[in-house]
Amino acid sequence: MKLWSGRFGKETDALVNDFNASIQFDQRLYKEDITGSLAHAKMLGDCGIISQEDVTAITEGLKGILADVEAGKVEFTADNEDIHMNVEALLTARIGDAGKRLHTARSRNDQVALDFRMYVREQIPVIVDQLLELETVLCKQAKQYQTAVMPGYTHLQRAQPISFAQHLMAYANMFARDITRLEDCKKRLNECPLGSGALAGTTYPIDRWETAQDLGFDAPMSNSLDGVSDRDYALELMSALSILMMHLSRFSEEVILWCSWEFKFIELDDAYATGSSIMPQKKNPDVAELVRGKTGRVYGDLMSLLTAMKGLPLAYNKDMQEDKEPVFDAIDTVEMCVPVFTAMLDTMTVRTDNMRKAAGKGFINATDCADYLTKKGMPFRDAYTVTGHLVAACTAQGKTLEELTLEELKAVSDLFEEDVYDAINLENCMALRNSYGGPAVSETTRQIGAIEAFVKAHTK
To answer: Catalytic: which of 155, 222, 277, 435?
Structure first.
């Protein structure tokens, strides 16, 4: 018999029962459900709503169920629909009438709101810790390649000389923002919905501050309608995870390009690549490709819940049962992607020779040539035009700017002197870019130090 069957005159159709049940996915909330029930029972006893004898029986019964679930001795059933009614039915079967008193002054609406909020709160630090490990690996790799010149790109065209360290630290800054977004989400969600009841609170003299404090929340949610119907925290989490996956996907795209024979800037460790079933020469960056592919999956999870929530009137609606699977999937996906991506970067081989060869082509020191003329007194736009003519001439002759003779340079401007070759040397071009945030060693050292300090400040 359903726990809510008093008003109904016939059994639920089997198809409806299966369609309505959520135990197949919300059973992962068993620990949060039992933890919330323990706090609720304690509060009911402290407020004199149920007897201390009942509190003791409920507490012992719930702890026994928790132990049995974790030992694999409990099999949940769709007949009891969800994790909440499964636990309550088990409790009542074990301790009798005291188990029936647990649900006093509570609804499944505030119960599930509590469980889900607690679950999200517990998963955020897991993801943050994974990102902090990724940051540590990025800093370690960046320290090794502060003088490794590579071409920086715009429009996927070689643009200006940078270091591999600066490129890595660009992503380190992105992941730092991801961490702070997740931490902000955790702060905002830390209000307790328990005690909101179905939507309008309760007539019992409960103490919502007690349960909020016992469960580690900053305060109870201040409006009971909002308490049971809010899923902003889940949407905010998935938004933050979508941005995180976007960053991982962009990085994956670069890893994929860098692994190709056309670039060959890096080589992945054999443990983090796969082969082809027909082409024996292949070494495929499947980890990066899967991360790139799974990004769309997390985006879809976010859109699924946004769409489910967009037309719902207050307060609770059964549509909101659709909140858990996308959140679970997004969390599972991210928690699978970040560690393997981190390990892939930690074990890669960096081909600085190929990076330097690529930097030597594509005239990525053209801006430095124009800047040289500007510092000699030529207006920048004129210097830009002169350098453009030089690039065109080099392209026609198959030369680089460094290979032009001083006579060839002076043929387009008398301002060129022997010191131009120092100005357009790629190592010098990079080293002189010491403006805040630039690729010079002094600046990448500062950037690495800032991320290391960030990691230390966020490591518990």
So the answer is: 155
Asked if residue 65 and residue 125 are part of one domain, the reply reads no
Phi-psi region of 363 (alpha: psi -120 to 50; beta: other; left: phi over 0): left
| Cβ neighbours of 344 (radius 10 Å) | 23
The owner of tokens 């919330």 is: 36
| CATH code, 375 | 1.10.40.30
Strands (E), 69-186: 149-154, 157-163
Q: State the DSSP code for 156.
A: T
pLDDT for residue 8 is more than 60: no
Selecting among 5, 51, 276, 442, the annotated active-site residue is 276
158 pairs with which residues across the strands? 153
Distance of alpha carbon 364 from alpha carbon 419, whole angstroms: 18
What's the domain range around 409? 366-424
Q: Are residues 146 and 233 in the same domain?
A: yes
Q: What is the pTM of this model?
A: 0.92
pLDDT at 177 over 50: yes
- Same domain for 164 and 87? no
Distances (CA, A) of 248 to 92, 172, 252, 258, 342: 48, 11, 6, 15, 10
Burial of 3 from C-beta contacts in 10 A (0-12 / 13-18 / 19+)? middle
β-pair type (219-220, 349-350)? unpaired
Residue 155 is among the residues annotated as catalytic for this protein: yes
Query: Three-state SS for 150?
Result: strand
User: CB–CB of 302/235 below 8 Å?
Assistant: yes
Residue 252 annotated among the catalytic residues of the structure: no
Last residue of a domain, one of 79, 104, 129: 104
Strand partners of residue 191:
219
On whether residue 188 sits in a domain, the answer given is: yes
User: Is the separation of the CB atoms in 135 and 454 below 8 Å?
Assistant: yes
Predicted pLDDT of residue 281: 75
Distance CA 233, CA 239 (A): 10
Whether 387 is in a domain gets the answer yes
97-to-88, 173, 325 alpha-carbon distances in Å = 11, 57, 34
Q: Provide Rg for the chain, Cα atoms.
A: 31
Q: pLDDT-derived band of residue 4, with 50, 70 and 90 as boundaries? A: very low
Contacts of 165 (CB under 8 A, 6+ apart): 141, 142, 143, 144, 145, 146, 148, 439, 444, 447, 448
- Both structure tokens of 451: 């991320």
